[in-house]
Amino acid sequence: MTREIIVSGFGGQGVMSIGKTLTEAGLAEGLHVSWLPSYGPEMRGGTANCSVVVSDKPVGSPVVINPTELIAMNTPSLVKFEPMVVPNGIILINSSIVDKKPERSDVKAYYIPCIEIATELGNPKVANMAMLGAYLEATKAVKVETVHEMLKHIFHGPKEKLVALNLKAMEAGAACVK
Amino acid sequence: MAIVYQKSKGLTDKEMHYCPGCTHGIVHKLVAEVLEELNLLDDAIGVCPVGCSVFAYDYFSCDMQEASHGRAPAVATGIKRVHPNSPVFTYQGDGDLAAIGMAEIIHAANRGEKITTIFINNAIYGMTGGQMAPTTLIGQKATTAPLGRDKDLCGGPVHMCEMMSAIDGAVYVERVSVNNIPNLNKAKKAIKKAFELQMQNAGFAFIEVVSTCPTNWGKTPVESMKWLEENMLPVFPLGVYKDVEEVASK
Amino acid sequence: MAMELWKGNEAIAEAAVRAGCRFFFGYPITPQNEIPEYMSMRLPQVGGCFLQSESELAAINMVYGAAGAGARVMTSSSSPGISLKQEGITYMVGAQLPAVIINVSRGGPGLGSIQPAQSDYFQSTRGGGNGDYRTVVLAPNTIQEAVDHTQMAFDIADKYRNPVFVLADGMIGQMMEPIEWKEYKPAYTAEKEWATTGHKGKRPHNIVNSLFIDAAGCHQHNLELDKKYKAMEENEKRWQEVGTEDAEVLFVAYGTPSRIALSAAEILKAEGIKAGLFRPITLWPYPMMELREAIMRPSVKAVVCIEMSMGQMVEDVRYAALDKKPVSFCGKAGGVIPTQYEIAAAARAALGR
Known about the structure:
The structure holds three protein chains of three kinds. Chain A is an alpha/beta fold. Chain A is built from six helices and six strands. Chain A is about 40% helix and about 20% strand. Chain A has a six-stranded mixed beta sheet, with helices on both faces. In chain A, α1 (about 15-30) crosses α4, α3 (about 115-120) crosses α4 (about 125-140) and α4 crosses α6. The relative contact order of chain A is 0.16. Chain B has a single domain, classed as Thiamin diphosphate (ThDP)-binding fold, Pyr/PP domains (Rossmann fold, 3-Layer(aba) Sandwich). In chain B, α4 (about 95-100) packs across α5 (about 100-110). The longest helix of chain B has 19 residues, at about 180-200. Helices cover about 40% and strands about 20% of the residues of chain C. Chain C has a seven-stranded mixed beta sheet with strand order 3-2-4-5-7-6-13, sandwiched between helices. Chain C is globular and about 75 Å long. Chains in contact: A-C, B-C. Chains B and C meet through β2, α3 and α5 of B and α3, α4 and β9 of C. β2 of chain B pairs parallel with β9 (about 205-210) of chain C.
């Protein structure tokens, strides 16, 4: 199975990081992966996006044209990429700031109030992790445990408490999908 | 019979191509003597320019690289970074250094590259046949300024020592000439000091030599020296423009 | 060995360090900035030197100086910056200096765009600077290959005393993929007796130079260089073939489009159309005879050349086809990447379906 994902949002929303975490986790599970960022003027404050491919086969084109899943962290991302999602594809929407719903009826939409989840947990930086948790719950693309192991690797010593915080954000995100 | 004079070991036996009365040969000799006296010939690496001194790689007996036009300070930077303990110098003319290579010389100086630059200023392009140089005097005729350099059209002569002395990374800047014996001795002293400072890792040193070009000036060697003294030296005054050691001791 | 996820530009830089590159001179330009950024952090750790130059011109001439002084040295840039470096590149070929030049290419002409493109094919393979000269041009299509090619480039450069290009595109520079760090052993280790290192009073002075003022001498120099180019053509040609043995339509592509062509082949396979890929890995020397052989196979009815340009390599593909098989072109310039759907459509059109 090949998953082609577009993660899109404002610069600073952790869009690239969602994509990278997913890519790393796919690699850790022995899958073929690629991560391709948009680069250029948009990284100076406009809308940024990345294409992620996670597959059991070697990755051909790393450019995602018709995503199987779209993560829209802001309204322009939903407007831009919704028409490209494959039929029966999945769209995950950051409902904290996106006030629109998909116009298409042949896609499955999930709404995750990422900012509220993060604010409730006391750290606005984990909003993107709430989205990642929701994505993993909706797709089972990689195991949550794989991401957990990665978090333990990134956050150790004085930063160890961030592992639990990130996991809580992921769980809260996942709950919105259940 | 006693030996009273010998060619420096810093020069090869290759016959130089310079025109009669050209001061390149004298300056080559001074640089070679300094390298020999400071015992630097074994390690020295020189970089020659594009212009009349393009064949300097055949005349200096140390290892040499030939740079593209104006880029000698960049080439020397690459060499010096690989061999930080070796003496590295560039030998450049006015077109090479002060026109096409202005960016490279300014930035090499600003980085405080531990190299020595010998700058030959004869106010004309020699190799290409007497075109206007960045240092050509106002009113001086050139093949591309048949009525003389017009300040309104192309500005006045570039004063390199004055510019270089304003750059932090340059530790020693002096303008010399080889028009008479006292000045020749001063020139050699300046070149020596520049290499000594390099070997002390002090920074970038720049020696401008006000020079002649009898062929393209259309003058005899003797007339050329006189023209240099009467016309160039008032515009390009000789002297030390920067000496960080002196500044520090004041 | 474990696979690690690396961004193309950073992987190229690390690969160079692992290949013994200790000197890097460069100037910022998108989309290759991660290479100098990585080098500025990494080279001091291994006793090397990174220097940000005042221009691409200065950078390539610093490379000239360092290469002439005997060092393993690299620079990187992107298309407009590579144009500026052409002066130094032709001088390095003339002076027979080894160095590695990375071009993470982008759209042109002029300032163009910053998105991935392959419009520098002519410049890379025909010599962008003056004079009769050649440089080996390696064109990776994965990050692993970008790593392997960068390391190989140093050996090829040293072997022939000639600069070597790695022509990546913005996509290879910017994307992340898993790679494996293989142990690198230099394939060519001969002493650089020609380098300017100071003669120590033990040998005649070495001269690094591209000037041969006497015409006959310059001609002789060119004959000697030409011998090296012939040896490169003999030894350094590289290519890959995927499903070419029974292909009806033969794709010819390098770099990023070669991957997209494989995605297009999957689409066509589902429709019962057999598509194969011939991928030149060295753009110079070009695997011309090998491509001709693939094109002339009886199963091949049409050839489609895919490029992120308005059609540059296609001239070589047409030459390989000798007017015996139809060659069509599918390409986008300026940073637009041809899609697998467009490539599949071009294949159908070429086959008349």
